[in-house]
Amino acid sequence: GARVIALMNQKGGVGKTTTAVNLGAAMARLGKRVLLIDMDPQGHLTLHMGLDPASLGHSVYDLLIDPAVSAGDIAQEVGERLVILPAETNLAGVESELAADAADGRAQRVLMDKCAPLLRGKDWFDSVLIDCPPSLGLLTLNALALADEVIVPMQAHFLALQGLSKLLETVQLVKQAINPALSVAGVILCMHEGQTILAKEVLDDLSAFLDSGRGTGQPWSDAVLYQPAVRRNIKLAECSSFGKSIFDYAPQCPGAQDYLAVARAVIAQHATS
Amino acid sequence: GARVIALMNQKGGVGKTTTAVNLGAAMARLGKRVLLIDMDPQGHLTLHMGLDPASLGHSVYDLLIDPAVSAGDIAQEVGERLVILPAETNLAGVESELAADAADGRAQRVLMDKCAPLLRGKDWFDSVLIDCPPSLGLLTLNALALADEVIVPMQAHFLALQGLSKLLETVQLVKQAINPALSVAGVILCMHEGQTILAKEVLDDLSAFLDSGRGTGQPWSDAVLYQPAVRRNIKLAECSSFGKSIFDYAPQCPGAQDYLAVARAVIAQHATS
Ligand SMILES: Nc1ncnc2c1ncn2[C@@H]1O[C@H](COP(=O)(O)OP(=O)(O)OP(=O)(O)O)[C@@H](O)[C@H]1O
Ligand SMILES: Nc1ncnc2c1ncn2[C@@H]1O[C@H](COP(=O)(O)OP(=O)(O)OP(=O)(O)O)[C@@H](O)[C@H]1O
Ligand SMILES: [Mg+2]
Ligand SMILES: [Mg+2]
To answer: Is B50 on the interface with A (CB under 8 A)?
Structure first.
């Protein structure tokens, strides 16, 4: 079946959406059939893939709230081997509308249940990438319930490093309560400025932390630091305004090279596990 | 009374916390008595001011949940003319714990009610800056209920511009339902890379949008684009790891100059309104 990956980090602006778009597009270029799921009420993944969140008809909100709406109803093709379940800003309402079902764990499983017909026993997709909002609320928990793995997009800054332990605590809780298969596959460094002292220091801290977890049996004990880091490159910020991935906008730029190399590393890791 | 400003933007990583710390510290250097309020469960404002969120005893969570805890109980001095109401990660629990009271508007007013003894009829503070999380949920709504004005930290990127209409819609709703005094004072450009085409294009869009609102009587019709923009400067990212403002870390760097100039502009705007 498909490999389901949640791109999560409660720290804002670290490259979650940019990674969903460009890692997804790179994997599609490398022959994988990719499903993207936008679980962020900002709808930035949807926007970045060239769709208009305001004119979708049905979207992930309907999938989660309306039993009659299936994943197939809202799926849209946005490129060769690239399909999306798009989001609108109304998705923000899900947190309160499902809150009543949160106590017994039903609210956290809605995405998992609704995506089963698209994924379980089917051979339509090789990889699923879920873009999460900058929080650890119900939308992110739904993504973790469905996911096999977590990849953490991260900026090598002090504040971004601080949230890692809370993030991993949340993964551990979901693994124990809802999804025993869940593990942390690795960290992708985004907007990387490798020449700065700050980046070197944060990188040292991060590597030491990941190494200390080896062999401890925790959900992140096999997590890797994907190589290469994705360098800061203004074309990665520009391509979102054209509704295109970096490969359709500037396929030769450093940003495209970096995401293609990271995609190869993510695919290779799976092949050997 | 004190001028209460909410620093809000649901887009993640645009400079909300960095602005709360350094605009606050600059205003204090210019003689203002400043209260900082951390309404983000990440606790980054608290961390950036050198406190350890894990060892606070009482924090904003207790202020919002426990009727016996007052704002004075949790206030801590973090510099000359600089006091903070600090946050811990448990603040994330407030969204669900107060959800039952959200329908009748009581859940949105808790911060306002609890801060009244510190602000109303007292002359302890000249300015209050509230750091908001990257969402439009209950914590941000509480900040808007207490605030007189909103300042929007923003990066001149496409995705960051997209959320502005939803942000302003939320301000309008709070103004109509809870806080008639609320208005948008302006936008501070953060991490600015003025030489890029993307920044110039976004800036043009933003200026045209603000100009089109002049004289329309909407909450943002008097909003300004504060000058200067705060330039991208790695020292602004470094100082957070030392628990210091830019003025205590690198007072001569461009980041310090920019935030001092922005603080003068924010203070001058108030003097003439
Ligand atoms: N490698 C890069 N180089 C330059 N700009 C980048 C890079 N990666 C992302 N960006 C830009 O930085 C900003 C933040 O990235 P993005 O929106 O993907 O982060 P996010 O984690 O999804 O944010 P949020 O928490 O709001 O969902 C965006 O404007 C994006 O275009
Ligand atoms: N002018 C600047 N130059 C360089 N780095 C900056 C600048 N302003 C902020 N940063 C860094 O960029 C990152 C994002 O800034 P910050 O955390 O203040 O944004 P935020 O809007 O508060 O994020 P969140 O949405 O997660 O609360 C931080 O690592 C910060 O240190
Ligand atoms: Mg995003
Ligand atoms: Mg912040």
So the answer is: no
Write the CA distances from B95 to A43, A93, A101, A229, B90, integer angstroms: 22, 13, 15, 35, 10
Contact B218, B208 (CB under 8 A): no
Tokens of A16: 């979650």
Residue type present at position A76: Q
- Which member of A95, A196, A240 has the closest CB to residue B159? A240
Give the pLDDT of residue B140. Answer: 98
Distance B21 CA to ligand 4 centre (A): 10
Picking from A89, A135, A196, the nearest residue to B234 by CB comes out as A196
SS3 B244: coil
Q: What is the pLDDT of residues A145-203, one digit of tens each?
A: 999 999 999 999 999 899 999 999 999 999 999 999 999 999 999 999 999 999 999 99
Taking the CA of residue A12 as reference, the ligand 1 atom at the shortest distance is: 25
Cross-chain residue pair A197–B238, CB shorter than 8 Å = yes
**Residue among B135, B81, B87 nearest B111 (CA):** B87
| Nearest Cα residue to A24 out of A34, A14, A37, A13 | A34
**pLDDT at residue B228 in the model:** 98
Could you give the percent of chain A with pLDDT greater than 90? 93
Chain centre distance of CA B42? 14
A13–B10 CB contact, under 8 Å? no
- Picking from B13, B92, B166, the nearest residue to A12 by CB comes out as B13
Quickly count: other Cβ atoms within 10 Å of residue B69's Cβ. 17
Residues of chain B with C-beta less than 8 angstroms from the C-beta of A240: 157-159
Q: Does B169 touch chain A (CB under 8 A)?
A: no
Does B11 contact ligand 2 (Cβ within 6 A)?
no
B200 touches chain A (CB under 8 A): no
Query: Would you say the C-alpha torsion B178, B184, B188, B190 has a positive or negative sign?
Result: positive
**CB-based contact (8 Å) between B237 and chain A?**
yes
The ligand placed nearest to the CA atom of residue A11 is 2
Q: Which of B256, B113, B243, B103 is nearest to B177 (CA)?
A: B103
Mutation test of ligand 2: which of B18, B159, B233 has the most ligand atoms closer than 8 Å to its C-beta? B18
- What does each C-alpha distance from B100 to A128, B40, B95, B96, B261 come to in angstroms? 35, 21, 10, 8, 44
Whose CA is closest to A91, among A142, A147, A48?
A: A142
How many Å apart are CA B191 and CA A12, to the nearest integer? 14
Residue A137 structure tokens: 């609320």
- Which residues of chain B fall below pLDDT 50? none
Q: What are the distances in angstroms from CA A185 to CA B6, B90, B235?
A: 38, 27, 32
A57 has a pLDDT exceeding 80: yes
β-strand A82-85 against A76-79: which pairing, if any? antiparallel
- Write out chain B residues lying below 8 Å of A38, CB-based: none
